[in-house]
Specification:
It contains 1 helix and no strands. By secondary structure, the protein is mostly helical. The longest helix has 56 residues.
Length: 64
Amino acid sequence: MKEVKFKFEDLKVYTKALNFVDLAYKTYKSFLSMLFVQPLENVKIIFQQLLKINYEKNLSNYQK
């Protein structure tokens, strides 16, 4: 087996690479949470608005 020697510059490169991977993972995680959390919130809001419109329509029909 060959002996592996690390230089300080290598350590800097590895640290940068790890930081990049960490950032990429965090970005990916936040993207996933946006993908799954946001649409559910939007669907909830749309559903509430549809219920409100339906209620108002029924109310106006009843009042006629």
